Amino acid sequence: MKGAEALLKALEREGVEVIFGHPGGAIMPTYDALYDSPIRHILVRHEQGGVHAATAYARASGKVGVVMATSGPGALNLVTGLADAMMDSTPVVAITGNVPRALIGTDAFQEADVTGVTMPITKHNYLVQDVNEIPRVVKEAFHIAATGRPGPVLIDIPKDVQLEEFTGSFDVVLDLPGYKPTLMGHPKQIERALDALEKAERPILMVGGGAQHAHAELLAFAEKTGLPVITTLMGLGAFPGNHPLWLGMPGMHGTVAANRAIHHADVILAIGLRFDDRVTGKVSRFAPHAHTIIHVDIDPAEIGKVVRTHIPIVGDSRLVLKELLKGAKPLRLAAWWRELEEWRTRYPLRFKPKPHLQSQEVIRAFHEATGGHAIVTTGVGQHQMFAAQFFPVTRPRSFLTSGGLGTMGVGLPFAIGAKIARPEELVLDFDGDGSFQMTLQELATVVKYKLDVKIVILNNGYLGMVRQWQDLFHAKRYSEVYLADSNPDFARLAEAYGIRGIKVERKEDLRKGVEAVLNADGPVVAEFKVYHEEGVFPMIPAGGAAEDMIIEHPAEREEVEA
Amino acid sequence: MRHVISVLVQDHPRVLNRITGLFARRGFNLESLAVGTTHIPGLSRICLVVSGDDHTLEQVEKQLNRLIEVLKVTDHAEPHVERELCLVKVHVAGVEERLAVKDIQEAFRARVVDVAQRSLILELTGDSKKVDSFIEALRPYGILEVMRTGAVAMSRGERTLKVREKKEAV
């Protein structure tokens, strides 16, 4: 058995069913072995598409996503996707070929120092120097990727190692003395947390992506206590978006109710989130009335990194919530809820109707037509925030977006990964004309594997989010954001790939357009020509606080006292 | 504030890169770094001198602990021994200068490790402050070159950097 076959066998033993990848010189021995392997391979058209698809596969399924690429350019095309998976704590294993050992360091053809380059953007990485180490490295890589705070792990394997005769064993025992994630929360701290919540007058529960797997425990705990629940962008779906206890998303484009609740809260229970600057705004003005912040996170380094924490609980969110639930009591929050209810009813997410077709109404129409029952993926920008606002998902692992890194172009490859992970689900990619064009080559992957994904391009002809900032903060100097003069005809582009293309330009055609997308047999690219001057509101400007919230465009401004 | 931190690591390739890369990426201020093998095969020990406030130091420790190959991190806040080794090549033109340098050498309990016609190499071991003063004392005679190892440290008494101690990691 060659190293390449040993590698695939080791992957099989880890339960790998799908690999997203693209072949090339230095990984050819492994692709040769793949020819006889039961593992399914999805051939993407660019390695970036592969790593994003693997990321979405992991997020949608809860399993580890696997991507494979060749040395040098192939591996370097994974960089953005690995950084994205790192920022959003997603378990991905990347396997890259490298030049033969004797050529490493000689600037050989297609050589790059991939372990060096990916060191800061992976949870860990390996350069395999000995063929018999393959089973141990693979076992460790999957363990590290999937446990503790999940993240990407890269395995770089020189071509001659892939070709070498394997004489080792697959029975390897994990031995990682420096890696022992703490899973159980400290009982004393859990007790203190419950005590603080019981004494609180205006408590809130904030959850992030680290609670996606803890949705059942979260729901039970929230319902038992009656705590208001706020979910970050990465936490959307961890708590049902149609639940009466849900206040929405916090932060820059969060709801008035969520941001005000944080502003006025006296006790904050934060679970599986890292107080990103898009959530906190200016940290010194974040949650000024909170005398107790309880932070539950599996990564001790996140606790106290951004905000002062009074009760730190290091542990797995699901296990900690289970413990919290044991001691949970219904809290007396009637007065607090009266306030929250007022904010919620007075400031729902809304937009001023215009004669033109608007992104928000397109997304809302899809939400109504599907009952919110879909896996949503997005690119990055205005359409992403509109999707977060107007497509409240009700199930975990069903809103797949690039949170931390803000990677434009993830929408289509995320849809591919999600569809392969959960083929029975309706997968909707809400994309922007700018974002979509960053990875549109993956339409070929959609065709190749007959993936029934619905790509909804909200085409405003601009890099809308940049334009919005220019509008508000750069005196309307619209520098290099105009796309409409050179955008393709997206429907015809889709047709060129053999995918059904739909174009909707008028408000009155919205319903028909949505139905056409949802009723189409197979993949669709639907272009909705939307109003280009739309802004995402509410908005807390970068570095601002809840008090600085802008509810509507300044031209129609209605300031809100926090 | 200055902190001396000892880190026990598995001596895998690039483990030092991971640590220096972490410091560069997170903007931590590294004053010196010394590394060597230990009595246990496969384990190396690194001593870092870091400056920063309490919040920064907490992050330094936590971020170091996130590295898979890091087994143990200790901030030597407790009584500890700290030493640095320094070689100084100093210019000595004549007998008088040679005698004066010899006085400094004796005062600091340094050793002469190389004698040439117009230069001496002196070796000094001590904490970083002592090394600083030694270099300053020699400066008027014409220092030709200096090499310092960076501080190494060890807790006093029975406290040790234990290998098997459970560490919080992710």
Automatic annotation (TrEMBL), chain A:
Any GO molecular function: acetolactate synthase activity
Pathway as given in its UniProt record: Amino-acid biosynthesis; L-valine biosynthesis; L-valine from pyruvate: step 1/4; Amino-acid biosynthesis; L-isoleucine biosynthesis; L-isoleucine from 2-oxobutanoate: step 1/4
Domain Thiamine pyrophosphate enzyme central, residue spans: 190-324
Domain Thiamine pyrophosphate enzyme TPP-binding: 379-527
Alphabetically ordered keywords of this record: Amino-acid biosynthesis, Branched-chain amino acid biosynthesis, Magnesium, Metal-binding, Thiamine pyrophosphate, Transferase
Transmembrane segments: none
Origin superkingdom: Bacteria
Necessary cofactors: Mg(2+); thiamine diphosphate
InterPro entries reported in the protein's UniProt record: Acetolactate_synth_lsu (IPR012846), AHAS_TPP (IPR039368), DHS-like_NAD/FAD-binding_dom (IPR029035), THDP-binding (IPR029061), Thiamin_PyroP_enz_cen_dom (IPR012000), Thiamin_PyroP_enz_TPP-bd_dom (IPR012001), TPP-bd_CS (IPR000399), TPP_enz (IPR045229)
EC id: 2.2.1.6
Cofactor binding comment, as recorded: Binds 1 Mg(2+) ion per subunit. Binds 1 thiamine pyrophosphate per subunit.
Reactions catalysed: 2 pyruvate + H(+) = (2S)-2-acetolactate + CO2
Thiamine pyrophosphate enzyme N-terminal TPP-binding domain location: 1-114
Gene3D superfamilies hit by this protein: 3.40.50.970, TPP-binding domain
Similarity section: Belongs to the TPP enzyme family.
Classification via PANTHER family: ACETOLACTATE SYNTHASE CATALYTIC SUBUNIT, MITOCHONDRIAL (PTHR18968:SF13), THIAMINE PYROPHOSPHATE ENZYMES (PTHR18968)
Protein name: Acetolactate synthase
TrEMBL record, chain B:
Domain ACT, residue spans: 4-78
EC class name: transferase
One Pfam family it belongs to: ACT_AHAS_ss
Catalytic activities: 2 pyruvate + H(+) = (2S)-2-acetolactate + CO2
Superkingdom classification of source: Bacteria
One function term, GO molecular function aspect: acetolactate synthase activity
Family as reported in the entry's similarity comment: Belongs to the acetolactate synthase small subunit family.
Name under which the protein is recorded: Acetolactate synthase small subunit
